[in-house]
Please model this.
Amino acid sequence: MARLVILGGGESGVGTAILGLRKGYEVFVSDKGEIKREYKNVLEHYGIDWEEKNHSKEKILNADVVMKSPGIPDTVSLIVDLVDKGIPVISEIEFASLFTDARIIGITGSNGKTTTTMLTHHILKGDGLNVGMAGNIGDSFAKMVAEKVCECYVLEISSFQLDGIVDFKPHIAILTNITPDHLDRYDYKFENYVASKFRIAKNQTDGDFLIYDADDEVIESWLAKHPVKSIVMPFSIQKELEQGAFLKDNEIVIKINNEIIKMKTSTLALEGKHNLKNTMAASLAAKLVGIRKQTIRDCVANFQGAEHRLEKVLKIQHVQYINDSKATNVNATYFALDSMSAPTVWIVGGVDKGNNYKELMPLVREKVKAIICLGTDNSKIVDAFGNVVDLLVETYAMEEAVKVAYKIAERGDTVLLSPACASFDLFKNYEDRGNQFKEAIKNL
Model:
């Protein structure tokens, strides 16, 4: 019996454990931290051997294959030891893909992954397809493969997950955009991060498709030097394309071979330029899978959007409160500010990931009337914008930030939580941050 060792007892780890058990592996789960009670209950229910707050080398270095959680860097000594011993160390999506013949749509990018994944899933489901949505969103891919059979999977995939693939191959790959993010994991070299994202197309052949943003110079220049084997399907809001998706006369035009679908931008559920692109990417994927034109049109018009991503919370005294807690980098916040049409009170801050705030400067000058910093260290934000806005307030708790925003905002304004930073200084994660924001608004 082959031995499968899983490092990390979170969503992907426990999902892999269930799938491994069902496929006849001897399974052991090891987590250096504490495993959440809900996951321990699952492991105990299945009788899977596990440990926490420790990695027992003697129980790990005898593995036939190791699945490591995406949060564990390749540089950790235990991973180096495994690789030196010639034991394959793979990601959960690689392991799960070995046990399904379903068509896979894989979606990666620095921003827009979640919305594009949800919208693609929404369209496919709307046409009656038996489709699963997994990866960085909802259930792990492995758990889904273990528990139900789908015709198609729509997967949101991070660069960390792509780093651990060997043969994983999506039939349709979507690359939403590439901007500097997570550079601490890539030796602070942007090209390493770009290469990681492009691994999504690494195993594709000439029968597969790569959908990508043709307005993204990073993607365009990488493709020029490193052509892919798959059929490329670009999308653009700046230029007309021979094949792919583009904007013309306030309509999205989808053009594949000689087939054309047109959708008025005024009918789309999602607002903002970045969401035009997300809609194009999802619509292209849906058309390539064979979804009917009318279904695509209906579904992009009635889509609800992702929680914590430009989510309209409440209007209080003619002030709109918007939760964009999922904006954990500068680029995501750029999209958010760009889509604001009213004077904006901007709540920003958290754990800085080496952010350069300069690119936000024109938008801040144009749209932001006041800045509320929310973090344990706000010095970079104060330095960047202290002289740009009339009012800048430092706060250290969500309730305080929301109360300050409520006092500052006037009729017709928007209060936007778009932190441009990770959340781990004051919150468990970006969901916790967004939920606290919503709760604080309801308590006003």
